[in-house]
């Protein structure tokens, strides 16, 4: 695929979840099947090795196999795709990037080095060398709430002026003040917000979502994305029900039971039943028991029936 600029990175991008066997080994056959399903669902794009793809739990051979599999399938199908080259170590992240450039992703996702918070000067130094290694492929900065440094739009804007290869931002978003700052400081970037906030996010100037909602049902998330551009009023009504579903039936696994975010995204894929990725998180992270799925599925069928 050709590299995409900021204006071209938009809409509903679905994650490629890793699939683990009971012994903790990577099941590439199931990963490959999942990529085929996502391509058949005709989502706006696919990305690998984010938090839900468990980039932090992969060894380098596994990272290469997943990246090569996604690239081959998407390049053959003409499907836009991004590869997450993130790692807590700047050195490993740089080497991952150098190894995937020849796969021609539409963009690459990176996090800032994450053992000790980087200064502004260090963040610029990191992104500049990553941009040089990317050889014209744009960088999407993945800056989740649990990052060691969570940047506001003004800070991202300063980075993008010094590193013009910065194409996009993956963020948790914020309130109306945050969106006003986004429109002021980074109107030139592709800004992606959480999937269940996509309608209100686009209404306030965001570009799309690397979508948690797509973990539940990528095809339904794609239909909703198209509805946003055609009938915002109806899309916002669905967003209210999605927020209720997430607040009451997904978020408590994090806030009350202490599961990690990736476990919730994987659990939603189990609830949605669109692909055989399983509920297993890789050691040492806990997996949400599949026995919880019928209760959550029943609630989803009531609140957001179009996703089931």
Layout: helices, strands, pairs:
Blueprint: E1 11-16, H1 28-40, E2 45-48, H2 60-77, E3 81-84, H3 90-100, E4 107-110, H4 120-134, E5 139-142, H5 153-162, E6 166-170, H6 176-185, E7 190-192, H7 198-203, E8 208-210, H8 213-216, H9 218-230, H10 232-250, H11 252-255, H12 261-272, H13 293-303
Characterization of the model:
This protein is an alpha/beta fold and 308 residues long. It has a single domain (6-231), classed as TIM Barrel. 47% of the residues lie in helices and 11% in strands. The protein contains 13 helices and eight strands. The chain has helices at 28-40, 60-77, 90-100, 120-134, 153-162, 176-185, 198-203, 213-216, 218-230, 232-250, 252-255, 261-272, 293-303, and strands at 11-16, 45-48, 81-84, 107-110, 139-142, 166-170, 190-192, 208-210. The model has no long low-confidence stretch (mean pLDDT 97).
CATH homolog superfamily: Aldolase class I
Number of strands: 8
Strand content: 5-15%
**Rg from Cα:** 18 Å
Q: Which structural category fits the helices and strands?
A: alpha/beta
CATH top level assignment: Alpha Beta
Low-pLDDT residue spans? none
Number of helices: 13
Question: How are the strands of the biggest sheet laid out side by side?
Answer: 7-6-5-4-3-2-1-8
Q: CATH architecture, please?
A: Alpha-Beta Barrel
CATH topology descriptor: TIM Barrel
Q: Helix content range of the residues, please?
A: 40-55%
General shape: globular
Largest sheet: 8 strands, parallel
Enzyme class: lyase
Keywords: Lyase, Schiff base
EC number: 4.1.3.3
Organism: Sedimentisphaera salicampi
